[in-house]
Amino acid sequence: MQILRKDALKKKRILLIEQHPKNTNDRTWCFWEKKNGLFEEIVYRRWGKAWFHAVDYSSLKELKPYHYKMIRGIDFYNYCFERISGSSQIDIIYDKVIRLQQRENEVEVATEKGSYLGDYAFNSIEFQKPVLKPDQFYMLQHFKGWIIETATPSFNDQEATLMDFRVGQAEGTTFVYVMPFSSTQALVEYTLFTNSLLNDELYESALKEYIEEQLNISNYVVLEREFGIIPMTDYAYPKQEGRIIYLGTAGGKTKPSSGYTFNFIQKHVEALVNQLANSDNPFITSSVFGKRFNWYDRVLLHVLFHKKVKGSRIFYLLFKNNKIKRLFAFLDNESTIFQEFYLLNTLPQFPFMKAGWKELFKR
Ligand SMILES: Cc1cc2nc3c(=O)[nH]c(=O)nc-3n(C[C@H](O)[C@H](O)[C@H](O)COP(=O)(O)OP(=O)(O)OC[C@H]3O[C@@H](n4cnc5c(N)ncnc54)[C@H](O)[C@@H]3O)c2cc1C
Questions:
Q1: Residue 243 · residue 272 · CB < 8 Å
Q2: Which uninterrupted H or E stretch holds 79?
Q3: Number of Cβ within a 10 Å radius of residue 326
Q4: Among 5, 11, 88, 108, which residue's beta carbon has the most beta carbons within 10 A?
């Protein structure tokens, strides 16, 4: 999408290979943004205020200068494919990619039905599960969501709930978020950061219990269901191999400590497109200074994985003691050292310093 907007790249020809047509609402993306973004037209809902709940603490946060936004998968796919099919720059093939192979000055993409050559391949396929080193973490962020419709007005559609930790923590870090679409419709999502998945009935019974006991809603129907798994890992996903550039989760664009990916993908693609337009190659390097965010992620994963501090306590302290502006900037890898110093001081010193030390010398 971003390449189509760049005049300097109007002569580039692109072949998009996708295994299946994207015609189902298989996910919703939530993220925060200060300004209007590239996909503003299809933002389904946006909220300027959001709740954070812990057992003895509830706070309605003003999100200014940010908005928390939601884009439905199906709207995103329709929007992108409409523009792609109207462009003479891009051809689409529905086929399964089997292998990518670097040639001297090209990349060969082998699919079930054919083979294609290009100057570069931009790949978002994870061909195999990461092979971890013994001391690497691989936790799962897994969630089940229901879009529910209630018989009577039950939600304030101006206020989302980002995290509600007033649910059992026996399995590990567990919270619910609630994204109201109207006074009678909302997405309610039960989310865990753990090492393994639950039985399907457990997600369902937890959602039912939360809706009835925490939201006090007994008369409702489930309109849609969503299930997802996002890796939370310090595995070093490849960024680039020769002329193959890795995108999305397969390129390590999922933030290990939060699972947020959508905005990181947009920022990465913008950097790639700018680089391509300015120097005719898409090879970008990340700043050494920016690598500190990777260390912060590893430290948080370390603390969560080894259960040094409960996730519910970490997020409680972060939300209670930090302004949203500082917290969101930190989670976006866009904070200043000063903001990070303040924010990290709001967390329990000893376990975080110990984890920080260990992670510093791990590799
Ligand atoms: C249900 C769900 C909800 C999520 N919600 C959020 C959210 O709210 N906020 C957020 O920031 N992140 C969220 N994420 C995480 C992340 O943003 C998404 O997973 C995002 O779609 C990742 O983009 P991607 O391009 O890496 O992978 P994908 O979107 O999965 O794209 C990869 C594409 O490659 C295709 N493909 C795979 N294998 C082959 C093959 N062999 N040949 C050809 N094509 C192939 C797939 O069909 C797919 O279209 C969510 C993830 C899930 C699963």
A1: no
A2: helix 73-85
A3: 19
A4: 108
Residue 106 lies in a domain: yes
Same domain, 317 and 204: no
Length of the chain counted residue by residue: 363
Ligand 1 atom with the shortest distance to the CA of 98 = 41
Residues 117 and 248 in one domain: yes
62 within domain boundaries: no
Ligand 1: which atom is nearest the Cα of residue 251? 26
Domain residues for the domain of 9 are 3-47+67-130+236-279
For residues 14 and 85, state if they share a domain: yes
The predicted model scores a pTM of 0.96
Radius of gyration for the alpha carbons in the chain, expressed in angstroms and rounded: 21
pLDDT tens digits, one per residue of 298-357: 999 999 999 999 999 999 999 999 999 999 999 999 999 999 999 999 999 999 999 999
Q: Tell me the C-alpha distance between 307 and 181, whole Å.
A: 35
Query: Which secondary-structure segment (H or E) carries 330?
Result: helix 324-331
pLDDT digits (tens, 9 = 90+) for 294-313: 999 999 999 999 999 999 99
Residue 99 Cα, ligand 1 centroid: separation in angstroms?
19
- Closest C-alpha to ligand 1, atom 16: 261
Closest Cα to atom 7, ligand 1: which residue? 29
| 240-241 sheet: strands from edge to edge | 121-123, 244-246, 240-241
Q: State in Å: Cα 169 to ligand 1 middle.
A: 28
Distance between Cα 261 and ligand 1 center (Å) = 9
**Angle, helices 311-321/292-305, rounded to nearest 10 degrees:** 130
Looking at 219, 249, 279, the residue that finishes a domain is 279
Which amino acid residue places its CA nearest to atom 47 of ligand 1?
19
How far lies 276's CA from each of 5, 56, 269, 284, in Å? Answer: 13, 51, 10, 9
Q: How confident is the model at residue 363 (pLDDT cuts 50, 70, 90)?
A: low
